[in-house]
Amino acid sequence: MQVSHSFIIDNISELITMAPLQKEQRFTRIVADDLGIIKDAWLEIADGKVAACGSGQPPGQKLGIPRIDAARQIVFPGFIDAHCHPIFAGNRAGEFAQKLAGKTYQQIAAAGGGIQSTVRATRNASTSELLELTQTRLQRFLRHGVTTVEAKSGYGLGLDHELRLLQVLRDAAQSTPQEISVTCLALHAVPFDAASKDQFIDQITNELLPEVKRKGLADWVDAFVETGYFTPADCDKYFTKAKDLGLGIRIHADEFLDSGAAAAAANWQAASADHLQMTSDEGAAAMAAAGVVAILLPGTSLYSKIPYTNAARFKAAGCPIAVATDFNPGSCVLDNISLAATLAAVHCGLSGSEALAAVTWVAARSLRLEHRKGALVPGFDADFSLFALGSADEWIADLGRTLPSAVYRRGNRAD
Ligand SMILES: [Zn+2]
Predict the structure, then answer these.
(1) Which candidate, 350, 375, 346, places its Cα nearest to that of 362?
(2) Exposed/middle/buried for 63, CB within 10 Å: 0-12, 13-18, 19+?
(3) CB 405 within 8 A of CB 71
(4) Contact status, residue 221 vs residue 213, Cβ threshold 8 Å
């Protein structure tokens, strides 16, 4: 349903604005008051932006504006999933069975499974098939109230294969109601058909990245900096080139072992370092000093039977903390951002308020969108969802069971 240029949603039980954090441009030390909750609220939208909000009845001069009755529901800023892998073909349910039988991620990969098995299936899929699969997955994110998605390539691996996936992600962005921030994850693994690791990295760095920039196919570049995949030294040329081209940096860091990836992320001035189970206190301190957002991905710990990231380490260091799903075919098939937030609260050690900020305001910061997303304040994009829950406390306690009754992006019904 499209709505008129200007309208008011009223009779809201709680409107979560994040206004104090937005006002102070603060991403750390988050407490309940920082959520900027307005009780018995109304929210005015004009031309796709938040125009005004308040408590009680909207002022008299707004009487002529169309109304939508929220029926005492809660309104959240549109959720932002800042780490996911939605473009691939095939599935790896068989590997999940192997994990249940005690095999590790590394053992499965060594036997030809893992990322390489998805690369094979993805390369064999047609472009139209990949577009349809991606659109279907993005719709599932939307059903959970996610209005902005960071989407990574990484299952093509190789010049033409990655270019094709990035183009499909850009095409998907045109046909989905969500905003898509595209990441070129060209260093996800060394593909099975590469002559050597060094030659592969050289080709990606010298040929792929300039082409990605020239065609405007990605906003970010990413690498799987992990023992057995890429070391910080392997990535130096790649990230230096990305920076020279004006592409932002995100990093898969220290998921299985501390490979120094967190400190490297700080050196490269990455926007985010993600996973971080094995990061040292020194790595966390370096990230904090460089303003790198720590993105926690607790769904992967649940699904892959690996440790959860200890949020206390990053809070103590002063890192901004976001939470995302890490939706992907192998290590985490979770597409429910609210469940990811509750997992981060229970297992990583976030408060409910921190978890909510982690999927809105801080997630926006990790994508450099905090000037227009992640909060509901005048001038910001009118991205929001209505949930039949009485309070933010009910949301974090709900384990992601409740789906929003309506999702809006830039003032239009998106669901
Ligand atoms: Zn990932």
Answers:
(1) 375
(2) exposed
(3) no
(4) no
Please tell me the predicted confidence (pLDDT) of residue 105.
81
Alpha carbon of 23 to ligand 1 centroid (Å):
31
pLDDT tens digits, one per residue of 130-164: 999 999 999 999 999 999 999 999 999 989 999 99
Identify which of 15, 11, 9 has the alpha carbon closest to the alpha carbon of residue 392: 15
0.85 surpassed by pTM = yes
Residue 81: CB partners within 8 Å, gap ≥ 6?
141, 146, 148, 149, 150, 324, 325, 327, 337, 359, 363
The reported pLDDT for the residue numbered 4 is: 52
Distance CA 390, CA 349 (A): 24
* Termini Cα distance of the chain: 9
Q: What is the DSSP string of 235-259?
A: HHHHHHHHHHHT-EEEEEESSSS--
Residues of the chain with pLDDT under 70: 1-4
Six-digit token string for 341: 């937030």
Inter-CA distances, 44 with 41, 385, 392, 401, Å: 10, 14, 21, 28
Q: How many angstroms is it from 331 CA to the middle of ligand 1? A: 9
3-state class (DSSP) for residue 163: helix
β-pairing verdict for 248-253 and 220-225: parallel
pLDDT of residue 1: 43
Can you list the pairs that 167-173 forms with residues at least 24 positions away whose Cβ atoms lie under 8 Å?
167/215, 167/217, 168/87, 168/127, 168/130, 168/131, 168/134, 169/87, 169/134, 169/217, 170/216, 170/217, 171/131, 172/87, 172/131, 172/134, 172/135, 172/138
Q: 366 alpha carbon to ligand 1 midpoint, in Å?
A: 15
Q: How many C-beta neighbours within 10 Å does residue 310 have?
A: 18
Ligand 1 centroid – CA 10 distance (Å) = 39
For residue 190, how far is its CA from the centre of ligand 1 (angstroms)? 16
**Cα–ligand 1 centroid distance for 252 (angstroms):** 6
Tell me how far apart the alpha carbons of residues 288 and 134 are, in angstroms, rounded to a whole number. Answer: 34
State in Å: Cα 88 to ligand 1 middle.
13
Burial zone of 6 (CB within 10 Å; 0-12 exposed, 13-18 middle, 19+ buried): middle
For residue 245, which of 278, 188, 204 has the smallest C-alpha distance?
204
Q: What is the pLDDT of residue 2?
A: 47
- What integer pLDDT is reported at residue 3 of this predicted model? 46
CB atoms within 10 A of CB 157: 27
